[in-house]
Amino acid sequence: MSTSRSHPANHPVEILRFNTCGSVDDGKSTLIGRLLYDSKSLMEDQIEALERSADITGGGQINLANLTDGLRAEREQGITIDVAYRYFATPRRKFIVADTPGHVQYTRNMVTGASASNLAIVLVDARQGVIEQSRRHTYLTSLLRIPHLVIAVNKMDLVGWSEERFLEIRESFESFLPLLDIKDVKFIPLSALNGDNVVDGSKHTPWYTGPNLLGHLETVHIGSDWNLHGFRFPVQWVNRPNNPHDPRLHDFRGFSGQIAGGIVKVGQKVMILPSGLKSRIKEIWTLNGSLPEAFCPQSVTLVLEDDVDVSRGDLIVGLDSLPGMSTELHAHVCWMNPRPLQRGRKYFLKHTTQTLQAIITALENRIDIHTFEPQPAPDELAMNDIGEIRITTAKPVAYDGYVTNRLTGSFILIEQGTNQTVAAGMLLPPQEAVRPEYNDFAI
N or C: lower Cβ tally within 10 Å for the chain? Predict the structure, then answer.
């Protein structure tokens, strides 16, 4: 069913970040190309380039996948290797879309592309049904706490637009979705190649009464996706312009960064971690001037009333909901390196704006992607394995559980010597034992 493109007057246009994932040749790149093409989000030169390349890559037919498969190796092989980002807009909403690879060896790229998404689209080939990659990407969607999931059953034209086949695939997903913490799931039958139920409805699915894909993307509620409880501000830069020609900047000392959670107001009492020192917010600055308050995910510069020691990597927090702080971390990880993860290995751990040394002290379990059951005490985690580990860091880390805050609850592991990112981690909620008596540090 088609959806109106009208937009309410004086209503701010939201940005929806979403990613597409699934197995090889499920049609992810073609789907994004269809969204761009049918929503009239392409420039004339892009359309001309598609038409020129049609005889080379599409047998005389426009190959919509070329809009996202930008690397020459991708076009020649007909696969997606790297994460491709595209931007488009309708009157209702702006979109940032990440087209992620389907090959098992590129699962790490899917984690990268999905880490900041509001919504994930898992494509399923109607002929193949639910396969291992479908389960893996759905599990990763849950693990990464992506709030909204669309199961796009693609290539329905190749199964005769069978309602029975669509329901079989939906039932296969519904058999394991209760094991995962995904609250908003939508199933849509479509054909990315022909455009059915992508931007416009399809006459081939009279049995389907839900929205087309773009209609759902335009209307899914994302206003509550950001964490507005518990102020969190990782300090990225100590701002000291010290301009003698501008009296406003004389002895100016602010702390710049992006708000990772909550709301901050002028006059609010805050704490700086890990020192535990307290102060109040004197001013909140942006490029366009000062504000009385700011909220996640705005980028701002904060000025404190007291001249306290604050540096890059510190975390400024509100006093209403304090994070945990410990050198002992417990986390889920997706391992991304060909060399397996083993107990005792040392890495750099990057959490928000700080990087510190860490050692792997235990491998708790590995997730069986077929059953979603943990296999206890594995010897190692191989590339693309998902598991639960314990880490000891060189100094205390102030953090939240990933389920509470995706920004202060996530980290990456970096291999020492090569500086390669080898793992993406999601911290488990801190226990009361790792919440120190912050009041001891009051100024």
Answer: C
Instruction: Look up residue 378 and give its amino acid.
Output: P
Closest CA to 358 of 327, 316, 321: 327
Eight-state DSSP code of residue 79: S
Helix %, strand %, coil % of the chain (to 5):
20, 35, 45
When the candidates are 2.40.30.10, 3.40.50.150, 3.40.50.2300, 3.40.50.10810, the CATH number that belongs to 324-434 is: 2.40.30.10
CA 252 → CA 244, 278, 302, distances in Å? 11, 19, 11
Would you say 36 and 86 are in contact if contact means Cβ atoms under 8 Å apart? yes
Does the pTM surpass 0.85? The reply is no
Give the DSSP H/E element, type plus range, for residue 72.
Answer: helix 72-77
Residue 71 — φ and ψ, nearest 5°?
-75, 145
pLDDT digits (tens, 9 = 90+) for 23-67: 777 778 788 888 887 877 766 666 666 666 554 444 556 666 665
C-alpha 323, offset from chain centre: 21
- CA torsion, points 124, 127, 131, 133, in degrees to nearest 10? -40
- Which residues does the chain have with pLDDT short of 50? 1-10, 55-58, 71-81, 439-443
SS3 (DSSP) at 296: coil
- Dihedral Cα 201, 205, 206, 207, nearest 10 deg: -130
Name the token pair of 306.
């007291």
- Angle 163-169-173 (CA atoms, 0-180°, nearest 5)? 140
Domain 14-219: which CATH number of 3.30.200.20, 3.40.50.300, 3.40.50.720, 2.40.30.10: 3.40.50.300
DSSP-derived letter for residue 248 is G
Amino acid at 362: A
Q: How far apart are CA 96 and CA 82, in angstroms?
A: 16
The model's pLDDT over 177-221, given as tens digits with 9 standing for 90+, comes to 998 888 899 999 999 989 999 999 999 999 999 999 999 999 999
